[in-house]
Amino acid sequence: MNLSRFACAMALSLGALSPVHAAPLVLGDQVTVDNKGGSVFTPSTTGDSNGLYQAVSFKLNGNSGSANAGLFVLDYKHANTTWTQFLSFCLEPDVYLESFDNPYTVKSFTGAGYTVGALISELWGRYFGQVNTDTKAAAFQVALWELAFGTTDKNLDKGDFKLTSGGDVKNTAQGWLNSLNGTGPMAQGLVVLVDQVNNHERQDLITQGPVNDVPEPTVLALMALGLVGLGMSQRRRAKAQPAA
To answer: What is the pLDDT of residues 88-108, one digit of tens each?
Structure first.
């Protein structure tokens, strides 16, 4: 994946958000997802104006790729409602996020075909509140990729997903994965926004809802609107070559 193109690593700039009212996400609902702001990456709360992300390289099912891994913001809406911004991650590193394959259907982990819901909930509950730097944002995204494609091995050096770049991103992500043992705090209210089921380039998203208000724009305050795009090898088609 070329770093100049949008796959998983894409988002809106938060800007100066004032409180907005969000339509709660209910299982079975269909929503439209878009990038209404037109800019990329979530600004950090510590003056990093270009956003919370870092370039990483990986192998997915033996195919090499690269992406900007980090924390992003998108928009969703129900029919006849206003747009709501939400934080986002995704878990198809070799699939473009844009153009959006609307509509998305709101489902549970099980309903969307994922069996790693408990691991993702624990990762989210333990560490999402620490996502406030480029390294930690990229590490969180990488850990999610590993859970989506590596299932339960939690090892960035083996399995369907392998991180081929190292440094603090890899060390942080692997440390977080190693800690997942079922005893940590579990994030509640996570639902999956399921892309078109038969689309070869399917990109599912996950958010924490229902949500009624978005407070002032800090990463920690926006925890209630976290979104993770998920992909899982067990219920996936054979992966295509990573985008160039």
So the answer is: 788 788 887 778 889 999 888
Sheet containing 63-70: which strands, arranged edge to edge?
A: 63-70, 53-60, 161-163
Please give the Cα distance from 190 to 206 (Å, whole number): 7
Instruction: Give the separation between CA 32 and CA 97, rounded to whole angstroms.
Output: 13
Q: Where are the domains of the chain?
A: 30-235
- Spatial distance between the Cα atoms of 100 and 178, rounded to a whole number of angstroms: 34
The sign one gets for the Cα dihedral 149, 162, 33, 185 is positive
122-165 per-position pLDDT tens digit = 999 999 999 988 999 999 999 999 998 866 789 999 999 999 99
Is the previous residue joined to 99 through a cis bond, with omega within 30 degrees of 0?
yes
Q: How far is CA 234 from CA 57, 148, 151, 152, 239, in A?
A: 23, 9, 8, 12, 11
Nearest to 27 by CA among 172, 207, 171: 207
